[in-house]
Amino acid sequence: MGTSRVRRWRGIAAALCVVLLAGSSAGCIGGPDPPEPEPEPPAAFALLEAFSTRMLAEGAPAVLIAARNGTTTWTHAAGVRSLDSGEPATVSDPVRVGGITESFIAASVMRLVAEGRLDLDSQASRYLPEFGSVLHPPGPVSVRQLLTHESGIPDFTVPLLASGSWAETMNRPLSLEQQLALAATVPWDGRLARIFDYSRTNYAALALIVERLRGEGIEEVLAADIARPLGLQATRMGGPPPTGMVHGYVTLEGRRTDASMPAWQAESPSTGAVSTVEEVNTFYAELLQGRLLPPDSVTAMKGGYSQYYGFALRRWNNTCNNRFYYGLPGDTDGYGMITMTSEDGRSQLAISVAYPPAPPTLEANPLIHEMQDVAQEALNSLC
């Protein structure tokens, strides 16, 4: 049901017969020694395959995994692209990446900072005048606070999902401006400002700032800043479902419902991007190795040493070198993804699961926490 491949150096020692020439006689002494047994795959790969097998047994339509450790790469694809077609999934199939979209947005923000066109400590209203007039924050809000989810801004998805059933709201297109307007209908609790309090509206505001400064839609900006420079063919926001996409599902009133391309997420800078596990790995490797942004911008994105969350980069302990892995969990209706990359970009793992269909909720799917644990254990076992 699934396929895996390992590309690695394999030394298979074979004994060769020794030809002894003595006078007019020659012979081969003894037969060839039996070949050494092929080495067992690393425990990390066995752990990941076992996780995949269990997810499929629990009803997940597909599990896609891409790992790298130095020059060793390993990929795994199991399940189907669609429960209707039954076509086998492949590791290069596009999936929804959920919250990993925020890393793409943050990279575009930091590109503007590197160009001197955006100041992280300036107020958001300097670049987005309606930020104050529409949202009425209880005090100044900086661009930096939006990046770190420390603004206290209400999450627009709360009133969105309260406005109708999931089936109704999922197919309602929602512009960035409409996302801010929805957030404005929720009272702003000033006490939450300046501590981490996740709200998707932070990145809606950041995407609008990027659009105003670039003069292009956020989809075009991400293509210009990330997809084209890195040669990412599947990574994008908006548009129709890409060919070969893995479909995710939710359960509504006991019935399975396709959740692969909900209209309201098409312009969601927090959850709207589509990519592949391999392309996500490429993005984070290029980012952390300083080939996408200047080194000081990458350092800023990582956050302070005592912070576990910087600018759309979360970190986990890397016990191989007492440093950190960086990446993000991506959780959205029907899909979960976890991606971790070592600081030097040499060790990476991305796991995508089309979740077993379940009722949609604003709360994170519990499987995303298990995926993080599995990913961290697998990476740390490779050293």
UniProtKB/TrEMBL annotation:
Residues 62-345 form the Beta-lactamase-related domain. Keywords: Hydrolase, Signal. InterPro entries: Beta-lactam-related (IPR001466), Beta-lactam/transpept-like (IPR012338), Diverse_Enzym_Activities (IPR050789). It comes from the Bacteria. Its EC number is 3.1.1.103. It is an enzyme of class 3 (hydrolase). One of its GO terms (molecular function) is hydrolase activity. Residues 1-26 form the signal peptide. This is Serine hydrolase domain-containing protein. It comes from Pseudarthrobacter quantipunctorum.
